[in-house]
Amino acid sequence: MKVKYILVCIAISALVSAATYYIVGQQDQKGIAVIDAVKLFNSYNLKVELENEAKVKLSFYGKKIDSLTTLLQAADSKNIQDEKLISRYQNVKRALDREYEQSNQAINETVWIRLNPLIDEFGQKKGLHLIIGANGMGSVLYQDNVYDITQEVIEYINNRYESGT
What we know:
Blueprint: H1 2-29, E1 32-36, H2 37-43, H3 45-77, H4 83-125, E2 130-134, H5 150-163
Helix pairs in contact: 2-5, 3-4, 4-5
């Protein structure tokens, strides 16, 4: 009786092991991958270049604000209220805020317009059926690193960008 029980337990264990192996194998065959979307976005060389270009433009406004701040502080130390200077400062500050927002929006749009086809192309070349964007802020709150291909995709998109294709 004990021998039959042991044989049944061994058979059940073997079936569970085989089923687990099969399920894990099927997941790999389904072509599922995870990409940290924020890391991918921030690591794309095009984004870095566009941000550097925007910094030059924004630094112009920053220098103007610094100069106006110095003038306002000097006037304030003499208890002088220069309404024209205050108004100019506020106008330049609004222009800086507007330029910053517009450049961020333009960079985001440009980068995603370029990234999406590259991610599609990458997925097709690798035979993937599903690429899930994950960063802990969306629907994927945890993933096993076995599915994380973020670094591989970063290298792919930056190689494509650098080669001009």
